Amino acid sequence: MSHPSESSGASPFPSAGAAARHPQDGEGVQEFDLFVIGAGSGGVRCARVAAQLGARVGIVERSHWGGTCVNLGCVPKKLMFYAAETGRAIADGPSYGWNVPLPEFDWPHFQKGKDAEITRLDGIYVSMLQKAGVTLFEGEAQLQGAQTIEIGPSALDPTRKPQRIRARHIVLATGSTPTRIDFPGSELCITSDQVFHLQAQPRRLAVIGGGYIGVEFSGAFRGFGSEVAISYRSAHVLRHFDDELRLRLEELMDLAGIHRHPHTLPRSLERMPDGLRLTLDDGTELAADQVIMAVGRHPAIAGLGLEKAGVRTEKGRVLVNSAFETNVPGIYAIGDISDKYNLTPTAIAEGQLLAERLYAPQGRYWDFNQVPRAVFYASPLATVGLSEQEAAVDHDLLIYTSSFTPMRQVMPHRPGKAFMKLVVDEKSDVILGAHMIGPEAADIIQIMAVAVVNGLTKTQLDHTLALHPTTAEEFVTMRTPTRRVAKGTVEALG
């Protein structure tokens, strides 16, 4: 797809840097150089950078400034992780001489604190946009053509008249929304959007889906003391992660008392006098106070008016090229709406790259094929680069592993081992992947990503002295490979 051409004639748009303001009802069309639909991580970055580079920019949000990540995803999820982790630390206290009884988890108190933090972050997003000179709108936005948008009434002001916007460049950044599957009683399920607003902690929780969301909620609520069962259709949780890492995670879930039901699908959900009853297709019946449907997310494109502008979609996602351009010149899409990477850092990077490409090319580059990922289960899991099964397709490998009890668990005798793994190309010695489950896994893998993305070798890693005593030192002290994987065969070495 070629780069959209700019008209050589007189532009109908205001010059860059013109003063931003809202039009009054019925005033007519307001015009921008760039207009962003969706104020999530990617949309906010794109709008802010473009405005700082001199463009006249507007942005519209229909529900939550900061998007899913801040309001219904990463941030509240990580706060839940910290809350559960604090409970485990208190439980370990007596073994370290702190004779403090373990109190009962106070869900309403946690919710109040979590909501206050999200409100604070939402305000920061709005403030950043305003300081950059971006004009803010609230309401439902719909494309009316290649350069025209109509903004309907907002939830805050449902009586406001529609507003018309024209922009040379339009960026679609509406993110994704929870996917629901249909079965008898499925309307009784909640999704991740509702979890963060529950009035009471479910004492019995059933989770449908073994991906990021299902695994993370299972770990958090089990940490709060809830009885947790998780059903998923595949053999193991977390598709697209290293197989050995997935097995290690399942061992930890079993130790935590989470009831796993692989190879199952929901058959029906019924309301009972004492709660809900979820029946799986193998006949298993699960009693629950809440059932979370965590079967994935899909691009939020409903109501955007893509057909009016002629924007092509495929399987529910907006099609874009490597420059984030749709098939319609001047219309772009970033973040989850294109269903490519579906991670906050990639959406932010796409927004940055697009704004710079349009208004001040920097030659900036990120490797979207080497994106570090983390799952904030009770014992967090993180990874960067190729899994062993992915790397074995094109490489002969040396696999290095280390499994051990983290020092913080020794005195409390808390079960569960940390696990670390390096996937190394045998011929070049280049580190193709790094994987970990255990304390501080996400922070450690963030640093290991520097090695993987920049093609460091195992020998270079070996030249690095260990920082002792730490968990991270294991990555620079694994000297002997565990096994060799070559031409479809596996040879044990360690």
TrEMBL record:
User: Which positions does UniProt annotate for FAD binding?
Assistant: K78, T174, G175, S176, D336
Sequence ranges assigned to domain FAD/NAD(P)-binding in this UniProt record? 32-351
Indicate the residues that form the catalytic site.
H468
* A single cellular component GO annotation: cytosol
The protein depicted here goes by the name Glutathione-disulfide reductase
* Textual note on the cofactor: Binds 1 FAD per subunit.
Bias kind Low complexity: ranges? 1-20
Q: State the species of origin.
A: Oecophyllibacter saccharovorans
Q: Where do the annotations place NAD(+) binding?
A: G209, G210, G211, Y212, I213, G214, V215, E216, G296
Residue ranges, annotated region (Disordered): 1-24
Q: What domain of life does the UniProt record list for this protein's source?
A: Bacteria
Q: Where are the transmembrane segments?
A: none
**What family does the database annotate?**
Belongs to the class-I pyridine nucleotide-disulfide oxidoreductase family.
Name all Pyridine nucleotide-disulphide oxidoreductase dimerisation domain ranges.
371-478
Signal peptide residues are: none
Per the record, the gene is gorA
Disulfide linkages recorded for this protein, renumbered to the chain, are C69-C74
